[in-house]
Amino acid sequence: MESYLSGRGNESSSNSGNSVPEFRTLSEIVTRNPDNEAEKKAEKDNANSTQEVIYSDGDSPVVEVMSVDGCPREIIVHMNDGRLLKISCNY
């Protein structure tokens, strides 16, 4: 067991040729630039997106479909009491 553990200390981490990138948590990666990435995605979606009312009849809820490049991305149901139900469509 001693021979197995030998050479696994700080000596192996000092080699610059085989350096391993520093460990970062997921929250550090996500918080790195969330605003810029979210803005870019929103701009891209808005440029190619269309909204279409597919159901509107009397006192029933209104149903809209938001499509990006002809592919449905979100279904929005407008309830009579003012609430919104948003259903994401992932294909």
Protein topology:
Elements: H1 2-5, H2 10-13, H3 26-30, H4 34-48, E1 49-55, E2 62-68, E3 71-78, E4 84-88
Antiparallel strand pairs: 1-2, 2-3, 3-4
Description:
- With 91 residues, the chain is an alpha+beta fold.
- The chain has one domain.
- The protein is 31% helix and 30% strand.
- The chain has a four-stranded antiparallel beta sheet.
- The longest helix is centred in the middle third of the chain and has 15 residues, at 34-48.
- The protein is elongated and about 80 Å long.
- It starts with a helix and ends with a strand.
Which keywords apply here?
alpha+beta, about 90 residues, 4 helices, 4-stranded antiparallel sheet, elongated
* SSE order: HHHHEEEE
Strand order of the largest sheet: 1-2-3-4
How many beta strands in the DSSP annotation? 4
Q: What gap, in angstroms, lies between the N and C termini? A: 51 Å
Largest sheet: 4 strands, antiparallel
Mean pLDDT: 77
**Any low-confidence stretches, pLDDT <50, length ≥5?**
none
Q: What's the tally of helices?
A: 4
The rounded Rg comes to 25 Å
Residues in helix, %: 25-40%
Portion of residues in beta strands equals: 25-35%
Instruction: Indicate the structural class.
Output: alpha+beta
Overall body shape: elongated
Instruction: Domain count, please report it.
Output: 1
